[in-house]
Design goal:
two-stranded antiparallel ribbon, mainly alpha, 2 strands, 75% helix
Amino acid sequence: RGGIQPRMAADVARLESIRNTHPSTNLRQRMPEQYLVLAWAGSLFGFLCWLHKTMDMIDLVVMTGMHLVCLPIISPWTTPRLMACIGGPVCGLIAGMQLIDLCFDFCILNGRPISDGVDIFPARKVAFLYYHTVITASHVNAVLLGIILTAFLGSLVGLGRSSPAVRRQWLGLGAAMFVGTGGYLTCVVPRYLSIRMATTFEPSLFDGWGIVLAARLVLYASLILSMPSLFSLQGMRDDGALDVRSRRIKDA
């Protein structure tokens, strides 16, 4: 209760301030910061320009829809602490999805044939069937895009709205996001697009697959390095002070 009451008092004071201000000022307070709007619009425009050759109507709906779903991330009511709390499940999703793909990465690199007890299949063909099925599934693409947008926009929200006391931690999280997600977008996604556009299996699609494995390991490293800062931010109020409940747990 000690940690909730100060936040409730701050919220009431903020609402009173909004109610008593001039309508034009009230409107500005309800709008996100300009740099966040530009980041959101730039993300949508950039993905459309990058992927337009491989997109159909369903992909366009998924792309636009997920950007709209993630739009509340940049709303004025989204706090850095809220984004830090959301970051935990997002990191779990990233780790789980990449862990499954790692099984097929090792299958490709080992090159050992796989048997179902009756027939024997080349490792790369099995991986092709898996990746081609996964990366053409709309729900998988929607979740993946949501993860990328949450990490991107959430880092900007935390960095721009946090107090100086915690801004360095958000800067570290943003750098980890940039390295991990950037490596995934530049090294892994182009390979996926080639597999997606392929109409028949070609073993050459998996040549040099070691770079994909390396990008996944870098992504895992960025997740591990960001965990201490993420947990620390979850236990702080938005002004940078340690939450009362977190302090009691720490003292105990």
